[in-house]
Write a structure and sequence with these properties.
By secondary structure, this protein is α/β, with parallel strands linked by helices. The protein has 8 helices and 7 strands. The chain is 44% helix and 15% strand. Strand 4, helix 3 and strand 5 form a beta-alpha-beta unit. The mean pLDDT is 94.
């Protein structure tokens, strides 16, 4: 007797047009889900995904994007809040605008997105929210006060949601990647890449797919009893920070 075919779910990945977000979207597609991704341009998502234009700092654009996704795929059952930016500067040189813009995208943008999909999850009494943080949010990094603050704030969001909605079949977890082999890290000098690798017990950067598989597990039925957790995918760099 063959295993039952898993139910297709409506999945939304913000910032799913490149890097880790794209790999996450591709993993859900591989598992048979109906996947939508957001990008600022509304283009560039993986083949097989619905790509919609959205800016997570703009509530009206999110409203329009989510309405488009739900019209095509049904109410969103899995949200991966991945959209994020960096604006690295040492604290003494960091202006208010630099700090605020990074938090507005990475932290408040995640709140805006969660807020807009949560009602349908509550009605169905089932949902998966996965917030993409970073080892930097727990470990810290010079020149990234804004980024670290935004990424650590996601933990508070996940844990507050777990307290509020855990009894309704909704989980909220944080996946915290370390250094990942993406275009961003490939642009670093070889000396800098070597320095970063030497600090990682695993001795290498992760492939984006390694993060994607963890996200897919956390969003699966097998992880129904995991909520409010911070799951590092960092080769041991953060060591539980």
């Amino acid at each position: 007797m063959s295993d039952p075919i898993p139910e297709q779910r409506s999945v939304l990945v913000t910032g799913g047009n490149r890097g880790i977000g794209r790999s996450i979207a591709e993993e859900f597609l591989r598992r048979g889900d109906r996947v939508a991704v957001t990008s600022r341009s509304g283009e560039g998502g993986p083949e097989g995904a619905l790509t919609v234009a959205a800016d997570v700092t703009d509530g009206a654009s999110l409203d329009a994007a989510i309405a488009e996704v739900e019209a095509a795929h049904g109410p969103i059952e899995v949200l991966v809040a991945n959209a994020g930016i960096t604006d690295d500067q040492l604290l003494l040189r960091m202006g208010d605008e630099s700090f605020e813009s990074v938090l507005d995208t990475n932290l408040t943008g995640s709140f805006r997105t969660v807020k807009r999909v949560i009602k349908s999850m509550m009605r169905k009494k089932k949902g998966r929210i996965v917030l993409i943080s970073s080892v930097v949010g727990l470990y810290g990094s010079p020149g990234q006060v804004n980024y670290a603050a935004s990424k650590s704030g996601l933990i508070g969001i996940a844990r507050a949601i777990t307290r509020e909605l855990g009894s309704r079949g909704i989980t909220a977890n944080v996946v915290a990647p370390g250094y990942i082999d993406t275009e961003m890290t490939q642009e670093l000098s070889e000396d800098l890449q070597s320095s970063y690798r030497s600090a990682i017990p695993a001795g290498r950067f992760a492939a984006p797919e390694e993060v994607a598989k963890v996200v897919a597990f956390v969003a699966s039925d097998d992880a129904a009893y995991i909520s409010g957790a911070v799951i590092p995918v960092d080769g041991g760099l953060g060591m539980g920070h």
